[in-house]
Amino acid sequence: MSLDPLSSDGFHEIPIPPPSPSCMRLVMIGDIVGKPGLRITCAAIPWLRHVLRTEIIIANAENSSDGSGIRTKDYRRLTDAGIDAITLGDHLYRKREIIDVLETAPNIIRPANLPDTAPGKSTCVVSSPNGHTVAITCALGRVFMKPVDCPFHALSRSLATIPTETRIRCVDFHAEATSDMQLMGRYLDGQVSAVLGTHTHVATADEQILPGGTGFQCDVGMTGPFESILGRKIDAVMEATLHAIPTTFQVATGNVRLNGTWFDADLESGKCVAIGRLNLSEIMLDHYNSSRASVRQLL
Ligand SMILES: [Fe+2]
Ligand SMILES: [Fe+2]
């Protein structure tokens, strides 16, 4: 049993069963937007580890610094807090300083279907405290997005570089169109543990296990302020849209939530055996963290 993040008080019990001993539980966190997104992501990690029993936490952080790109200090903040691997999307190089990190750090990747000369690597392998390894790769969609190489062939090439003994493999497909995302799920079904979408900042309710054993969801959603237009202040986006006046789209602040998806992968086969959505409120997480702190003081 775990705390229900969807209830108004955040403490209604819902059944998220613990992972079976033959499985690893992973979480993919949807696009982290600005300071609110960074704050709730860091606050969520104790809950994800201790209540949800997550071994590996992956996050898409393409919007984590000012809503576009990621700075070195924000990469460090996320990894110091316990994020195991970071994926990126179409905004990856907006903060150019991250290029050094992309070229040197072992746990942050760029989309696979950029030019060969684009900085960074498109695949990483990270280990859990229990010694289990997980491979992560990502790619950009081509529908309603800037032209890039074919994501299907690019991901096939990336997956071919992963050691065969690493059975658990997670793909972040950063795409706009649900048809594109569904095609990628079917294309990779049976080859990877999960194909999870990011980029639209809106979670879809289609989480499922495909026939070949691949967990799938078109988009895992956004981590940041929900009182917004995709994480930005409503008034600014409204003004630019209605009156064509160029405006800075500042990151919003209200109703901060974490959207993500958990899934359990069989340690032997790598196949997905369970999957579910997360929609965590900052109020619930703050309450959980202060309860933990009170208990620690009593010990
Ligand atoms: Fe995004
Ligand atoms: Fe994006």
Please, could you describe this protein's structure?
- By secondary structure, the protein is of the alpha/beta class.
- The chain has one domain (21-298): Purple Acid Phosphatase, chain A, domain 2 (4-Layer Sandwich).
- It contains seven helices and 15 strands.
- It has helices at 34-50, 72-81, 98-104, 151-160, 178-188, 234-243, 282-298; strands at residues 2-4, 12-14, 23-29, 31-32, 56-60, 85-87, 123-127, 133-140, 168-174, 194-198, 208-209, 215-217, 222-227, 254-266, 272-281.
- Strands 3, 4, 5, 6, 13, 14 and 15 form a seven-stranded mixed beta sheet that branches.
- α1 packs across α7 (282-298).
- The chain is globular.
- The two termini are 24 Å apart.
- The model is unreliable at 1-13 (pLDDT under 50).
- Bound molecules: fe (ii) ion (2 copies).
- The site of one fe (ii) ion (FE2) has 6 residues, from loops.
Number of strands: 15
CATH superfamily: Metallo-dependent phosphatases
In helices, the fraction of residues equals 25-40%
Order of helices and strands: EEEEHEHEHEEHEHEEEEHEEH
Distance between the termini: 24 Å
Topology of this protein?
Blueprint: E1 2-4, E2 12-14, E3 23-29, E4 31-32, H1 34-50, E5 56-60, H2 72-81, E6 85-87, H3 98-104, E7 123-127, E8 133-140, H4 151-160, E9 168-174, H5 178-188, E10 194-198, E11 208-209, E12 215-217, E13 222-227, H6 234-243, E14 254-266, E15 272-281, H7 282-298
Parallel strand pairs: 3-5, 4-13, 5-6, 8-9, 9-10, 10-12
Antiparallel strand pairs: 1-2, 3-14, 7-8, 11-12, 13-14, 14-15
Helix pairs in contact: 1-2, 1-7
Bound molecules: fe (ii) ion (2 copies).
